[in-house]
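Lecture notes, continued. The same structure-token format from the folding unit now serves as the input rather than the output. Read the line below as a description of shape only.
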């Protein structure tokens, strides 16, 4: 079994994926960490040194590696991964199940405010209002791809254990 967790940055894909993988005795891969390991650089450095186009090309290449291998694995994809090229089509055609972790804009903004310096696409959002406007617009653009996931989990204040339980019920 393979599970692909998708959703906006800060939605909790890695947190939920790690806990569920531990509970179900599965492997876990954080795609951002995987990509950084392959490139030998942090994502922010890749963006700064080589630009977003290079990053997205490499992201598509490494996504293919994950789609073709790694059985019994939960994979937390990057927030933009399913939204470029034909990535979502490839995810849906691959063996495994895609899950959209859907978090409301206000909650995403709250979570991302303290993380914006470490996320290349957010570092210029210098007020909570600007960040919320950016997230709202960005999420609207990406929701077309996210909503193609086979399973959707709506985050409405549940705790991590409650969300992991809900996810487990829908998957197993």
């Amino acid at each position: 079994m393979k599970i692909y967790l998708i959703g906006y940055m800060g939605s909790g894909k890695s947190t939920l994926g790690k806990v569920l993988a531990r509970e179900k005795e599965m492997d876990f891969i954080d795609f951002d960490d995987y990509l950084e390991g392959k490139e030998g650089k942090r994502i922010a450095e890749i963006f700064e040194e080589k630009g977003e186009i290079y990053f997205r090309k490499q992201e598509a290449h490494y996504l293919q590696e994950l789609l073709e291998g790694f059985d019994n694995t939960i994979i937390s994809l990057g927030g933009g991964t399913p939204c470029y090229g034909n990535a979502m089509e490839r995810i849906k055609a691959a063996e495994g199940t895609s899950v959209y972790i859907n978090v409301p804009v206000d909650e995403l903004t709250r979570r991302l405010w303290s993380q914006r310096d470490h996320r290349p696409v957010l570092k210029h959002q210098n007020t909570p209002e600007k960040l919320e406007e950016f997230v709202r617009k960005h999420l609207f653009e990406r929701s077309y791809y996210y909503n193609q996931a086979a399973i959707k989990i709506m985050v409405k204040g549940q705790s991590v254990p409650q969300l992991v339980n809900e996810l487990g019920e829908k998957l197993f």
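Point for the exam: Residues 2-157 form a domain with the Rossmann fold fold (CATH 3.40.50.300).
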